[in-house]
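This section describes the prediction task in plain terms. A model, or a person checking by hand, is given the sequence of a single protein chain and must write out its three-dimensional structure as a string of C-alpha cells. No templates, partner chains or ligands are provided. The sample shown here is typical of the held-out split.
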Amino acid sequence: MKNLLHILEGRLQALPVRMAVQLPAGPWLGARNAAVTLRFRDRMALLALASGEIGSVGAAIVEGRVTLEGSMRELMAAAAGLLTGNPAQEPDHLGWRRVLARARSMAVHTLQNDARHVRFHYDLSDDFYTLWLDPRRVYSCAYFCDPGMTLAHAQEAKLDLICRKLRLQPGERFLDIGAGWGALLLWAAEHYGVDATGITLSRNQHAHVQQLIAERGLRGRVRIELRDYRELQVQEPFDKVASVGMFEHVGRAKMNAYFATVRNLLRPGGLLLNHGITAGGVDNAQLGAGMGDFIERYIFPGGELLHASAVLHDMAQAGLEMVDTENLRPHYARTLWAWSDALEAAQEPARQVLLAQAGPERADKALRAYRLYLAGSALGFEHGWMALHQILAVRPDGDMGSGTMTGAQSVYPFTRDYMYTTKDRTPCFTSSSPDPRPT
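The expected answer:
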C-alpha cells in the first residue's frame, strides 16, 4: 500500500491542475487548495486512479464510491495527466480482443437488443436533454464555421452543410436514418423542399417529431416512422439518404449489412451522407483506460466505433463509392464542451427532472454519468482518441454519360465548391430563421 501511495503522490504532483485525494481511512494526498478533490471510499478505485484507469474511477464516481468536488473542465485536465498511455492505441498483439469484440458484436446487435439499447439512452427524458441541447435538440456534432457562433447557430450550420453536401433539390425523396428529434428532417423539408422520411427507434423522439410535423403543417410531405433500418420497406428507393449519429449503434459485425441495406434504399446515382463518430485508433476494439467500459455500461450499451478506414472498407464492399470525407473532430469537442457547460449550469433542474423519471438513486447515478460522459467525450475528441467523419458516397448508376462529367455515374459533380458556398454566396452559413419553440 505504501508503494501505491508513493506512486500516486508523485502522479498528483505532476498534474497540470491542483488535485487532492482523500484516502478511505481519512488521510490526504496531493495539493492544498485543490481545484479538484476526490474522496475515496474503497481501495480498488484508488488502485484504478494510480494505474491510470480513469474510466474505472468514473464508474466509482457514478456508483458513489468516490465523491467528486470541482469543475468538469478541471477534472478532465487532471484525467488526461493521469493516463499512462494513449487509450486509442492499447496493444493487442495477438488480436484476441478484436476477435472477441467481433463475436460479441454479432451476438449483441439483434433487432430487439438494438431497440432496447437506443431506448435506454434516448428515452431517458426529453426534458433532461432539453436542459443542455440547443433549441432544436440536435444531438450530434455542430459545425462552427465561424468561431463566434453560438451552439444553436452552429447546429443550424451543420444541418445546412449536410443538405448542401447532398445537393438536396425540391421534390426529391429524402431519408433520414436515425432522425433524432427531427431537426435535419424538418430543415431539409422547410429549406430545401424535399419529401422527407425519418426513422427512429426512440418512442420519445417519434412522438416529438410527429407533434412538430403537425404544428408546422408538414403532413403529407414529412413523416417519421418508429422502425429499425433493417425493417424499412419502400416501393422505390430514395434520391438522397442521410445517417447522422446513428451508425455508431450498428456494430462492427453488422456494418457490411448496414451499408448494403442503405445502398438498396438509395437509387442508382443517388447520394449518401454518413455522419458519425469513428475510432482514433486503427486496431483497438474500444477505448482503453476503462473508458470504453464506462460508455458501454452507463451511456451507450451496444455502441461500437470503427476507424474511418474500416468504415470506408465496408462501404466499398457494399457497392458505395466514397466521393468526399471530412473530419470534424475539433468541432465535436467544442460541441460537447457546450453541452457539458450547459448541464453543469443546470445540475439541480436536471436532477429534479431525472428524479421524477427514475427515483433518487437512479437519478443521481444518471446525472453523475452524463456529467462525466459529456466532459470525458470532449476530452477524447480534443486528444484525437475519437473522431467525427462526414463521409459522402454515391451509388454509381453504371451510365458513363450521367452526371456533369463523363464517368461521374451519379449526381455528384466531382467538385467541392458547392458544399461550402451557401445560398447567399458566403462561405459560412448565416441563419435568418428564429429558434424554434421549445416543447
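For orientation: Confidence is low (pLDDT under 50) at residues 434-439.
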